[in-house]
Design brief:
Elements: E1 3-4, H1 6-11, E2 20-21, H2 58-80, E3 93-96, H3 101-111, E4 120-127, H4 130-133, H5 147-163, E5 169-176, H6 178-192, H7 198-212, E6 214-221, E7 224-231, E8 236-238, H8 243-247, H9 251-289, E9 294-296, H10 302-310, H11 313-316, H12 329-337, H13 351-354
Parallel strand pairs: 1-2, 3-4, 3-8, 4-5, 8-9
Antiparallel strand pairs: 5-6, 6-7
Length: about 375
């Protein structure tokens, strides 16, 4: 049976009467509010927004921020409330955590849902990339100080210091030597099928090692960071997939805006939402579940997709602003209001580049190349 939107299904003839109806509407292409006859004023050409606290038209966004928060809170609540207790202080839930705005917003809202003090595991993965490490002088740098490790630690400290100071936020560094990549590469590739591109492999490796949860627990002791060996205990993992597709997080969304304005951007967002299940989610589920973990996606709950699909395009993203602001603008404003002043301003970085799983053997390979 084919999946169709409700309005499309009603218009089909009897030959399509057995179609399945999606529980949300198609992404709106409207770039205006229902009660607003004019598009919002454009920022000055040289205007650089360096602090979301200075964002001016906040009153126009506030109803959408509030609605988004309610929808996302409900999505997270449904995904964690039925997880059984494991006892002995073993966490029930973990987050694949780069420190980016998607995952840290999930963490901040999760803190409002879980009982006080209940531990949460934050899994942050980093790879030894031989093409990168050969340029690093011995002793000059930790080979695992990849971009996602830096933002991950920064985000963890922001959660500890500003969001929930009493909660046991367990930041787990999952460091992957190149030898382990070679050891498990063939197995991960089998899990990807039918996905078969270089990018699928780069993403799949990051998700597989991160969800395995074998690494080092980072602890703050007398203002210093200490580490001890650690095996993650959470069987349910929250992932931030779906935020980029719905809120304009990819570089192709900015390119669509540059080449065709709001109309082309809206079509690109609509396409991404339509194909995410077949393009990404099967792959991600297979990789994570191979480690006996269950991936749950708060941004892809039906109520969240339904809400965001109806929000006017320019209230979700505004490509007139620079990177780190314009894309996923609605999510950034929510994160800022939750107290995540620093993380709300981070620009999008794909996991394969943030964790450095991309281009391990050759710099000439492209993400769309077949394995």
């Amino acid at each position: 049976h084919q999946w169709r939107y409700g309005a499309d299904a009603e218009q089909e003839d009897s030959a399509f009467s057995n179609c399945l109806v999606l529980p949300f509407g198609q992404v709106t292409l409207d770039s205006r509010d229902n009660d607003d006859s004019a598009k919002p004023d454009a920022p000055e050409p040289d205007y650089q927004l360096t602090d979301l606290a200075r964002f001016q038209p906040i009153d126009l966004f506030q109803p959408y921020i509030d609605g988004f928060k309610l929808a996302l809170m409900e999505s997270i609540r449904v995904r964690v409330e039925s997880i059984p207790e494991r006892g002995n202080g073993v966490p029930r839930v973990g987050i694949l955590f780069s420190g980016g705005v998607d995952c840290i917003t999930i963490a901040a809202l999760l803190a409002q849902i879980l009982p006080a003090g209940e531990p949460v595991e934050l899994f942050n993965v980093a790879f030894e990339n031989p093409r990168q490490t050969k340029h690093v002088q011995q002793g000059a740098s930790n080979i695992y100080d990849v971009p996602d490790r830096k933002t991950g630690i920064s985000g963890w400290l922001e959660l500890c210091n500003r969001i929930d100071t009493q909660r046991d936020w367990r930041f787990v560094e999952v460091d992957v030597p190149y030898g382990q990549v070679l050891e498990h590469q063939a197995h991960i590739r089998r899990l990807l099928v039918p996905s078969d591109t270089v990018m699928d492999m780069s993403i799949g490796m990051a998700l597989w090692f991160a969800s395995r949860g074998v690494g080092s627990l980072v602890m703050r002791v007398d203002n210093e960071l200490e580490r001890q060996e650690y095996q993650g205990g959470a069987r349910v993992l929250l992932l931030g997939m779906g935020a980029d597709e719905q809120l304009g997080g990819y570089s192709r969304h900015r390119s669509a805006w540059d080449h065709g304005g709001a109309s082309q951007l809206g079509q690109e967002i609509r396409l991404d939402v339509q194909r995410i299940a077949t393009r990404n989610l099967g792959r991600d589920d297979r990789v994570v579940s191979d480690n006996s973990k269950e991936a749950r996606y708060p941004f892809l709950a039906a109520n969240v997709v339904r809400f965001l699909a109806a929000v006017p395009l320019h209230r979700k993203m505004d490509m007139r602003y620079s990177r780190g602001i314009g894309e996923k603008l609605l999510l950034r404003l929510l994160a800022h209001q939750l107290g995540l002043a620093q993380s709300s301003m981070l620009a999008k970085r794909a996991i394969q580049f943030g964790a450095r799983t991309a281009k391990m053997e050759s710099g000439r390979t492209k993400g769309q190349d077949c394995l």
